[in-house]
Amino acid sequence: xxxxxxxxxxxxxxxxxxxxxxxxxxxxxxxxxxxxxxxxxxxxxxxxxxxxxxxxxxxxxxxxxxxxxxxxxxxxxxxxxxxxxxxxxxxxxxxxxxxxxxxxxxxxxxxxxxxxxxxxxxxxxxxxxxxxxxxxxxxxxxxxxxxxxxxxxxxxxxxxxxxxxxxxxxxxxxxxxxxxxxxxxxxxxxxxxxxxxxxxxxxxxxxxxxxxxxxxxxxxxxxxxxxxxxxxxxxxxxxxxxxxxxxxxxxxxxxxxxxxxxxxxxxxxxxxxxxxxxxxxxxxxxxxxxxxxxxxxxxxxxxxxxxxxxxxxxxxxxxxxxxxxxxxxxxxxxxxxxxxxxxxxxxxxxxxxxxxxxxxxxxxxxxxxxxxxxxxxxxxxxxxxxxxx
Length: 389
Fold this sequence. Notes:
Radius of gyration: 22 Å
Number of strands: 12
Oligomer: single chain
CATH architecture of the largest domain: 3-Layer(aba) Sandwich
CATH topology of the largest domain: Aspartate Aminotransferase, domain 2
Distance between the termini: 48 Å
Shape: globular
Order of helices and strands: HEHHEHEHEHEHEEHEHHHEHEEEHH
Helix content: 40-55%
Structural class: alpha/beta
Low-confidence stretches: 380-386
Strand order of the largest sheet: 2-8-7-6-5-3-4
Strand content: 5-15%
Mean pLDDT: 94
């Protein structure tokens, strides 16, 4: 529908895909160009990742989380976090295995396992007592016993955060029951509170069962470069390396060299990107509140997880998304795309500049007014008339 609308000349403001629009830092681009000019980099690369990049990954974990990582046995380079998750799913799963995945969740968290024949059991997203109770029920009532648990904090799509205390509770439970933990930490550097999100690998005992995936896409605005990495339990890393050795020769070496420059080079770009996303978040949330659509401000990620306004709740996320596209020229992602428990929401990506966000807010405000929803300006006018009376 979006493609057809654009082909017909509509100016669609696209918040649907989490596709960062900020430019990759110039020093990363320059290193890529330099590496491309060396013909030696045009040969097959290394499916585990070049040694320099794996050392840079270890350096990042040391600086950011205070964790000591052996780059030779506990780190591997991936073609983005999605590829790593999918291939590790294949490495550790047999048909009929039970995997525990939050619902709603980023689709690869479920489908990486579904593709290889596993059964996926949904658990709550929000970290806390309900989450732990669901884990206990899953062990009691799943046949066979669950093989792995997927975690993703900061969460896509809900933007929820987890604490190190929550991770400790999960690790203790999963170690006791022999369940692997796959943590997706792709949004570790996009947060708006004072406390940076933790890594599950900050817990020494997590190394017995856990592996963590991180992407360069969001942190350094390198989505099209397709580069990420995994760190964690050496047996799980070795299993992923074995599958990758059959499927690919690793990312193009100049991309890996540039990723090394990103991790080892100046990091001020991260704070800059974080500030831009925070400004966009505030413009969106405050603007939509004035339009009569209250959205909780996300504490992290580049997404707002927006409950469908009550006047449209009966439509469900797909039909509401269609109406936004047709009536307001705004594209968002329907929540049901992340699991059936997301159907009361839409995900709004902070991937347009503030001017475009304000334009989208105006379009949505007009659409909601035409639909009979009182906006803040309408309410102020009504209040003023009542005071005059």
